[in-house]
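Please produce the structure of this protein holding zinc ion.
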Amino acid sequence: MTWELDPAEAFTTLGNETRLDVLRALWEADEAMRYTSLRREVAPDDRGNFGYHLSKLTGHFVQKSNDGYELRLAGEQVVRAVIAGTITANPSLPSQTVDDECTFCGAPVEFQYDDETITVSCTDCEGLVGGDLPRGTFIHYEFPPGGLAGRDAAEIVDAAHVFYDAKVIPMLRGICPICAGQIESTIEHCEDHDAIDGELCVACETRNETWAVLRCERCYYTRRVIVWFAALTHPGVISFYYDHGIDESIPVWKLPWERLQIDRHVDVDVIEREPYLFDISIRIDDDTLSVRMGGDLTVRTIEREPPEPTDVDDGDPG
Ligand SMILES: [Zn+2]
Ligand SMILES: [Zn+2]
Ligand SMILES: [Zn+2]
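Below is the modeled complex.
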């Protein structure tokens, strides 16, 4: 792996208020700034250090052109991270119930926010995943503090679902949402799976027996996702849901777990191992969609039963 700037050096470069002020000023200007106007903006009482600090940023975070100084992508990312609050703030929200009920047991659902992570959990049963996570957890993933402002509890949870999609969908397609590197996916299948009603499997500490671990080979960003979610962005699956009354865009995590009004059930059978091959059947009402998916998370075949009605040729020559 090659870095344009050594990571430790990058952090050292940013450990100075004047330099962060330069990045912010350039970001707010949204165009190249001349040396004098940049100095006037950032350090009006400068006694000579300004030029030094600016030179430290120039190259990796800031570039100099004929029009003056402007942000490079790395500089923009620093400012965005500061604005999103992930670097400078660490707010938390106490547990509160949201207007939703548990897919598994019908009990009220609550959410809490701590350590830049949102956790949605059931107030009664063991939820979806256990292990080190709070009892009853369905959702436990990162959400920047910037997403809390101006939203009530339900809106925060909705936003977190959409944010999750924005990270996971590219990963399911093999692209890291952080660095655009390549994703390696590993299947985790619990061979002794036994998740009886209301409790998690003792062997794998989850309710779901097959997961995909998606990991970036470059930056090591990692997400664990229920394996059949990979099929949820396929047009054949989307149209199946659409034909059964889902007529709005719903985040992948929300579709199977929270749309209780749809009488659905999903089964995943492992047909082959090494490499894995899965048969996924999604049932809604009396209809079944059969999806064959590989361990690389690509859909191989897709079939409806009963078959999708097709236009009957009535023989009318006109
Ligand atoms: Zn529950
Ligand atoms: Zn298990
Ligand atoms: Zn990455």
